């Protein structure tokens, strides 16, 4: 693991305290009778309390993937694994190993809806992968990392569905057949143009470089906004957000193999890096979330970005199982 060491006076937590905290967290989930011994352990060093708080925050962050999986049939196996009689009736050392395996499994397993979307799509990219497609009408689509796209071309229609992720479109002109891209938030309709489309927690962000597009929310019939070159807007399920300008260098950086950050909060940087890594990155301390990051990084080397972050920010990195990364 990375991030060993840390003396009483340097503010850093020794790796052994974090490992011990994970063991105590597992014990207390099993049986409250360990509380007295736990209190004695805490009293041995004031830094142990902080190590345990970080462990609790890590497990709280892992509960969100658990809740998402629980709504899908594919989560049945995970839910069985989480039953205390199976997980926690082990020796202390094996509890830690199982806790790490469970944590990785919960975070790395595909979300139920994501798996369904991949099965419905014609083209899918894995985390860290990019791919370009030439459609039957001559239009070009570039898919960014972890994206899923379905294509339906016919004599009177050109209709695509982006289930997740991000894509760049260079649409061949055909006034008789509008080019329609659907997402869960709404539709983008064009006849010939170039634009970037990204789905995130805010909705579907459309950034137009050339031509003209019409934006329509999924659940607001008749509401349409028009974008012109250099403009962008976010399409939500019930409304289209305000039209604004955008920085083309940052928005389309991924097409050049770059991630561009301008005075960006670390929490947003982590969210962006998680799109390119198979293993997740978690922030264990809330006070790190608003640290600012600026720079241009290589999308094919997220580990290099992590090295740059830990080299320039007051952040320590711990790797668990080779995939999970915890910043603290």
TrEMBL record:
Which Pfam families does this one have?
Answer: DUF4880, FecR
Q: Which residues does the UniProt record annotate as the domain FecR N-terminal?
A: 19-58
Which InterPro entries does the record match to this protein?
FecR (IPR006860), FecR_N (IPR032623), Ferrdict_sens_TM (IPR012373)
Domain spans labelled FecR protein: 124-214
- Give an example GO molecular function: sigma factor antagonist activity
UniProt name for this protein: FecR
């Amino acid at each position: 693991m990375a991030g060993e060491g840390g003396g009483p006076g340097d503010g850093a937590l020794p790796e052994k305290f974090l490992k011990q905290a994970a063991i105590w967290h597992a014990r207390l989930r099993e049986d409250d009778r360990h509380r007295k011994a736990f209190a004695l352990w805490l009293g041995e060093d004031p830094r142990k309390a902080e190590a345990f708080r970080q462990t609790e925050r890590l497990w709280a962050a892992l509960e969100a993937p658990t809740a998402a999986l629980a709504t899908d049939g594919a989560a049945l196996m995970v839910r069985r694994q989480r039953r205390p009689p199976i997980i926690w009736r082990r020796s202390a050392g094996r509890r830690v190993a199982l806790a790490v395996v469970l944590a990785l499994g919960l975070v790395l397993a595909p979300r139920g809806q994501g798996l369904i979307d991949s099965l419905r799509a014609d083209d899918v990219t894995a985390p860290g992968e990019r791919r370009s497609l030439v459609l039957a009408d001559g239009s070009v689509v570039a898919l960014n990392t972890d994206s899923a796209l379905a294509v339906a071309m016919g004599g009177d229609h050109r209709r695509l569905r982006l289930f997740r992720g991000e894509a760049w479109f260079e649409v061949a002109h055909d006034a008789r057949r509008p080019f329609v891209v659907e997402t869960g938030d709404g539709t983008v309709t064009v006849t010939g143009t170039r634009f970037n489309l990204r789905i995130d927690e805010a909705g579907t962000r459309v950034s137009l470089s050339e031509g003209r597009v019409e934006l329509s929310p999924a659940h607001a019939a008749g509401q349409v906004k028009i974008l012109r070159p250099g403009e962008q807007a976010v399409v939500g399920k019930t409304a289209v957000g305000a039209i604004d300008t955008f920085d083309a260098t940052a928005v389309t950086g991924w097409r050049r193999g770059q991630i561009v950050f301008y005075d960006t909060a670390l929490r947003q940087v982590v969210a962006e890096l998680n799109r390119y890594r198979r293993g997740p990155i978690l922030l264990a301390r809330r006070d790190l979330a608003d640290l600012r990051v600026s720079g241009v990084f290589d999308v094919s080397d997220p580990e290099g970005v992590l090295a740059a972050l830990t080299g320039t920010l007051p952040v320590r990195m711990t790797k668990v199982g080779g995939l999970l990364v915890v910043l603290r």
